[in-house]
Amino acid sequence: MTRLRGLAWDHRRCWGPLDASIGPYCAANPALEIEWDRRSLYEFGEGALGPVLGAYDLVVFDHPFIGDIAEGGLMVPFDLSAEQRRGFERDSVGASWQSYARDGRQWALPIDAACQVASYRPDLMERYGPLPRSHDEVLELGRRVLKDGKWLGLPLVPTDAMCLLLTLSEPSESDDEFIAGEKIEQAVRQLRQLAALSHPNSPKWNPIRCYDHMIAHDDVVYVPFAFGYVNYASKADRPYLRFADVPTPRSAGALLGGAGIGVSAQSKHKQAAIDYALFLCSPGYQRGDYVKSGGQPGSLAAWQDGEVNALSGGFFASTLATIEASYLRPTHPGFISFFRQCAPHAAAAIAGELPAAELADRLNRLYRETRHGQPQRSVA
């Protein structure tokens, strides 16, 4: 009997379709046993990979780890046929497929696709007219809802503060400058304006906490930027959320998220793990049981499927334009370490505790060290 162990992150969007896959997949492969464990959202995005890869055959993780993975050969590359590769490339949502490639190899498959999008309570928003389409319109909405004792929402824990900065600042990614200083100062100014109109608990919120609050209370009307979660749009009972493209002039410009599934180089059952990962990411499973079990698929066919959108309150169709044009973070070695170091500084700048110009200096200095120095690796 072959036993595969996998590690997911602890939200139904991730573990729901993985757990649901075990029964049918093992029924079709009776010599196989599969077990999925869970870890926190923070560990998924910024934790250490090294200890994990020694204990699990399959790991669901965030794409900025790819540089360290490729450099260290930490995972098994998916050496797909030309036909398989073309199929995945055509079925990719935005840059999801590209985000798991490095040095000419494919180190993971895009099992989940996401980016920062807008969200709102439709029952609360209906009294305020159409959704805002620009920063100024968001501020105007924020002032209007504040008069009614309500708020905007804006997840501002350090990780999300850094993601917001990347969404709004248009990184240039040169070797010596990650983001131009004036772009950082402009983004911080905009984020301070939004934060002033956002719920007082926003600095404690990641997207999940923000959405949980919106469902449980009636005081947050609209969120301009936060990673989308289909689960809150798929609720059959009220209150539920609806999602939309971000309010930027380009109807784009949001940070790409999502999740990839990779096979540990230390796995004793590499081919069995690869075959299972291919099944999980196949268009048929992605637009079927994957969505029905609470997942947010990485398959474009699923995002465009009418039945899938009917089940999800139009989540996918309503945000597809944003994710198709979303910003792909760098995947060079050391980027996770750079991101982790910068995140508290970004949060401090948005809170007014650090001058925006000083944030720009710190961020670009750390980026130069990452590119030219010897940064501490995130996978240790």
Write the SSE topology.
Blueprint: E1 2-9, H1 12-28, E2 32-39, H2 41-46, H3 50-53, E3 58-61, H4 66-72, H5 82-90, E4 101-102, E5 105-106, E6 109-112, E7 116-120, H6 122-125, H7 135-147, E8 151-152, H8 158-169, H9 181-196, H10 207-216, E9 220-227, E10 242-244, E11 259-263, H11 270-280, H12 283-292, H13 300-303, H14 306-311, H15 315-324, H16 335-350, H17 356-372
Parallel strand pairs: 1-2, 1-3, 8-9
Antiparallel strand pairs: 3-11, 4-5, 6-11, 7-9, 7-10
Helix pairs in contact: 1-12, 8-9, 8-16, 9-17, 16-17
Helix content bin: 40-55%
Structural class assignment: alpha/beta
* Principal-axis shape: globular
Low-confidence stretches: 375-380
Radius of gyration in whole Å, from Cα? 20 Å
Number of helices: 17
Distance between the termini: 32 Å
Summarize the structure.
By secondary structure, the protein is α/β, with parallel strands linked by helices. It has 17 helices and eleven strands. The protein has a five-stranded mixed beta sheet with strand order 2-1-3-11-6.
Structure description:
- With 380 residues, the chain is an alpha/beta fold.
- It has a domain at 2-114 and 256-314: D-Maltodextrin-Binding Protein, domain 2.
- It is 45% helix and 13% strand.
- The chain is built from 17 helices and 11 strands.
- The chain has helices spanning 12-28, 41-46, 50-53, 66-72, 82-90, 122-125, 135-147, 158-169, 181-196, 207-216, 270-280, 283-292, 300-303, 306-311, 315-324, 335-350, 356-372; strands spanning 2-9, 32-39, 58-61, 101-102, 105-106, 109-112, 116-120, 151-152, 220-227, 242-244, 259-263.
- A 5-stranded mixed sheet has the order 2-1-3-11-6. The protein has a 4-stranded mixed sheet with strand order 8-9-7-10.
- A hairpin with a 2-residue loop joins β4 and β5.
- α8 (158-169) crosses α16, α9 (181-196) crosses α17 and α16 (335-350) packs antiparallel against α17 (356-372).
- It is globular, with a radius of gyration of 20 Å.
- Residues 375-380 have low confidence and may be disordered.
